[in-house]
Specification:
The protein folds into 2 domains: 152 residues, Ribosomal Protein S5, domain 2 (2-Layer Sandwich); 120 residues, GHMP kinase, C-terminal domain (Alpha-Beta Plaits, 2-Layer Sandwich), CATH 3.30.70. It has 10 helices and 11 strands. The strands form 2 sheets. Strands 1, 2, 3, 4, 5, 6 and 8 form a 7-stranded mixed sheet that branches. Strands 9-10-7-11 form a 4-stranded antiparallel sheet, with helices on one face. It is globular and about 55 Å long. The protein starts with a strand and ends with a strand.
Length: 279
């Protein structure tokens, strides 16, 4: 028996990052948008634990999700599992692909075992796996705050998204560390407020307004580590995007468009671009 789950990517339309706490974690406040681009995750009983993900070598967050679930539910409840991931979301791209896969593994493996853990227990496991994982347990648009553990579903109007991934990923940890260095040296502004209220209200606005409010505290450090991203931002804007931004910790650049027709026309003019939708 096996269970297959869809693991959709997300883009941060607004990402505000606070100063790191005692444990080194950065509090955040973000407006997440679920997009149609998604991985496919299949979990099945096996003779031994195995994660098969072509193009991603070694241990990853999906394997850690299996071990975390087994530690919580017990080895007699969670048997050895084979996880197969069909990757469509670029790796280390600022699109939450690894977190989406891990959340899909938690959902599928828990269901395969007869749902031994309730929603609250799964949320706690997700919180310990990474700041983007809790929001992906029930994929959708959301305002996310705290260290990623507070997730409030919101509605967004449909819109098209042009994504311009890089051929080389960018380490999330390296971007956060660069943000801290730049703030300490006065090269990046101090953190803004982390009140989720304004983001809830922003989610209800039409795409043309929302696009004028795109914001990402990680964009400046990502650009300092990967200066070539500036040209991609310019290219997306020149093709008529309502707004453009580095997604999450990068290096993917995104542009918002009111409809797919305009997005497709823009993507045809940008090398390596692809089109997806906010669902």
């Amino acid at each position: 028996m096996s269970i297959t789950e869809t693991a959709p990517a997300k883009v941060n339309l607004v990402l505000r990052v606070g100063e790191p706490g005692p444990g080194g974690l950065h509090p955040l406040c973000s407006l997440f948008a679920r997009i149609a681009l998604a991985d496919e995750v299949t979990v099945a009983e096996a003779a031994r634990d195995e994660v098969v993900c072509p193009g991603v070598e070694g241990d990853n967050l999906a394997g850690r999700a299996v071990r975390a679930l087994r530690a919580a539910a017990g080895p007699e409840v969670i048997p050895p599992l084979r996880v197969r991931i069909v990757k469509r979301i670029p790796v280390a791209a600022g699109l939450g692909g690894g977190s989406a896969d891990a959340a899909a593994v938690l959902r599928a493996a828990n269901a395969l075992a007869g749902d031994p853990l309730d929603r609250c227990a799964l949320h706690e496991l997700a919180r310990n796996l990474g700041s983007d994982v809790p929001s992906q347990l029930a994929p959708g648009h959301a305002v996310v705050s705290g260290a990623g553990e507070r997730v409030e579903p919101v509605e967004l109007d449909p819109m098209a998204v042009v994504l311009v991934p890089d051929t080389e990923g960018l380490s999330t940890g390296a971007v956060y560390a660069q943000l801290d260095r730049m703030r300490a040296g006065g090269e990046a502004p101090a953190p803004a407020g982390l009140d989720p209220g304004p983001l809830r209200r922003l989610a209800g606005r039409p795409p043309a307004h929302l696009a004028t409010r795109l914001e990402n505290d990680l964009q400046l450090p990502a650009l300092s580590l990967r200066p070539g991203l500036a040209k991609r931002l310019d290219a997306v804007r020149e093709q008529g995007a309502l707004g453009a931004l580095v997604s999450g910790s990068g290096p993917t650049v995104l542009g918002l468009f009111e409809d797919s027709e305009r997005a497709v026309a823009a993507a045809q003019e940008i090398s390596g671009a692809l089109v997806t939708d906010v669902l």
